[in-house]
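Problem: given the chain below (274 residues), write out its structure.
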Amino acid sequence: MPGLLFVVATPIGNLEDITYRAVRVLGETDLIACEDTRQTRKLLDHYGIHKPTISYHEHNESERAEDLVARLVAGASIALVSDAGTPLVSDPGYRLVKAAIEAGIAVQAIPGPSAALAALAASGLPTDSFRFGGFLPSKPGQRAKALEALAGEQATLIFYEAPHRILETLDTIDRVLGPRPVVVARELTKVHEEFLRGTAAEIGAQLAARDSVKGEITLLIGKAVAPAVDETPLHEAVHALIDSGMPRMDAIKQVAHRRGLSKREVYDQLLREK
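Solution.
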């Protein structure tokens, strides 16, 4: 009879943040696949769980997934955990879950901690719609392009960021997105948990004044403000800019940008209105 794969969420800092069900499953499963066996062993020892572990991380994911699926097919029950939080969320595990499903293995998620959701809940930013983007690109140009692509998103944006890049990222946010509300959540559930709220420039100045920035960071950016609807007829809006001294094609381009239209759409409508 095929085994069962459990995807188990574990604490992101405070070891008390684990469910009774997660402790039971980890204690009953045949094998625990860990991102870092040393890190997971701290949690297992804390709860007196004595089960064999095996490494499963981004560098051995492909070959290890094949081995684990073979064990599942043979009837083993396996728990997949990451170093902290919910597996697969900016952590390894996708290949194993996909391969297990394709092999007809049942997969059960044991829900629990997630840094992204914990940060969102305490951020003070809108929670009706949010978008998790993992880690932003490390290269400045690619990071700026990624943020530009999300500039119009009507949702709170959530990212993970490395402490040594946070100042650069806040500077990019300030340049690309302007003075939106931003929250930096650092060391969630740990002794030195901290929430910094303000604009990217304000938070960047606070962090730059410190000797160093350490710890796990979750970065949240407030949603884009929907532009006010301009009901001025297109020809009037364009001619107002022309009258101010702007060249005609530049005026058409600016009006098109303000209203989310292409230059061709504005030009064609001007011809119809004329």
